[in-house]
């Protein structure tokens, strides 16, 4: 009987070890943190995989953000607004048709050059800056011209 308890206890430890060895990007909470940021990107703007990873901090890398984005629900998450650090789409070998992401961004007004890159200086969205601008606009000025 004591041996039986030991086995069930070992089984619980094995299950816990299995869950803890699962990659973080496989957990719903990990994915949801990525999706929360992506859902805030306005139409006509983009963020990079690395930019999102940096915002989220430890445990997030550009590669894992990309992994999460490839599993995003197109109806609820604007996955196409996340691009690589060169300003190009990285979905050509994964999504059919291969230019789908670029065409979706172009429909929102993002322009790409002949090499398939957009100007990140113009189209990159930075959440802190954008939200600060919105707060300033909604508060109005205390001073008049």
Per-chain topology:
Layout lengths: L1 H20 L6 H11 L8 E2 H8 L5 H8 L12 E2 L16 H8 L12 H4 L3 H13 L6
Parallel strand pairs: 1-2
Helix pairs in contact: 3-4
Structural description of this entry:
The protein is an all-alpha fold. It is 50% helix and 3% strand. The protein has a single domain, classed as Arc Repressor Mutant, subunit A. Helix 3 packs across helix 4. The longest helix is centred in the N-terminal third of the chain and has 20 residues. The protein is globular.
Question: What class would the helix/strand composition place it in?
Answer: mainly alpha
CATH architectural type: Orthogonal Bundle
Taken together, the total number of domains comes to 1
Query: Could you tell me the mean pLDDT?
Result: 80
Give the count of helical stretches.
Answer: 7
Radius of gyration: 21 Å
Structure summarized in a few sentences:
The chain is mostly helical and 145 residues long. 50% of the residues lie in helices and 3% in strands. It contains 7 helices and 2 strands.
Search tags:
145 residues; disordered C terminus; two-stranded parallel sheet; disordered N terminus; mainly alpha
